[in-house]
Design brief:
Order of helices and strands: EEEEEEEEEEEEH
Number of helices: 1
CATH class: Mainly Beta
Shape: globular
Number of strands: 12
Largest sheet: 5 strands, antiparallel
Number of domains: 1
Distance between the termini: 16 Å
Bound molecules: thymidine-5'-diphosphate
Oligomer: single chain
Structural class: mainly beta
CATH topology: Jelly Rolls
Strand content: 35-45%
CATH architecture: Sandwich
Strand order of the largest sheet: 1-9-6-11-4
Length: about 130
């Protein structure tokens, strides 16, 4: 499975660091929505879905977490622990997030508004869809 990590340029000086996110430039889609997860409790695992059309870029702006990515044939674990490196989540990739550090703020940029119809939340449905394509 191809894992697409997007390096984000840090504009740093003696005052600290700054990263700019620009749609269709360093973010490879038009951004319709941004959400972020924080205060994630210890041992929590979340996600457990794939999308039909949505493309997302996940950036650990603080702390770290891990992703399980599954295309129905292969499963890969990816650690996100660098605020200057984002992970692209393509459609039809089952994903689960876990091992959130206590301070983790995971920001996600999304190519569309929240739409429950775009979710595949049942793993068997997901498997059936990706193996019959
Ligand atoms: P949920 O889908 O359970 O998060 P995850 O699958 O990443 O663990 O979302 C939690 C709640 O937040 C659920 O009630 C739906 C709502 N939600 C929105 O209203 N807008 C959004 O953009 C997202 C991602 C979730």
């Amino acid at each position: 499975m191809k894992i697409e990590m997007i390096p984000l340029q840090i504009h740093g000086d003696e005052r600290g660091s700054l990263i700019a996110l620009e749609e269709t430039k360093n973010v490879p889609f038009s951004i319709k929505r941004v959400y972020y997860m924080f205060n994630t409790q210890g041992g929590v695992r979340r996600g457990f879905h794939a999308h039909k059309e949505l493309v997302q870029l996940a950036i650990p702006v603080r702390g770290s977490c891990r992703f399980l990515l599954d295309n129905g044939r292969e499963k890969v674990n990816v650690t996100l622990d660098n605020a200057s490196c984002g992970l692209i989540i393509e459609p039809y990739i089952w994903h689960e997030m876990f091992d959130y550090s206590e301070d983790c703020v995971l920001m996600v940029l999304a190519s569309d508004f929240y739409n429950e119809d775009d979710y595949i939340r049942n793993y068997e449905d997901f498997k059936a869809r990706v193996t019959h394509e």
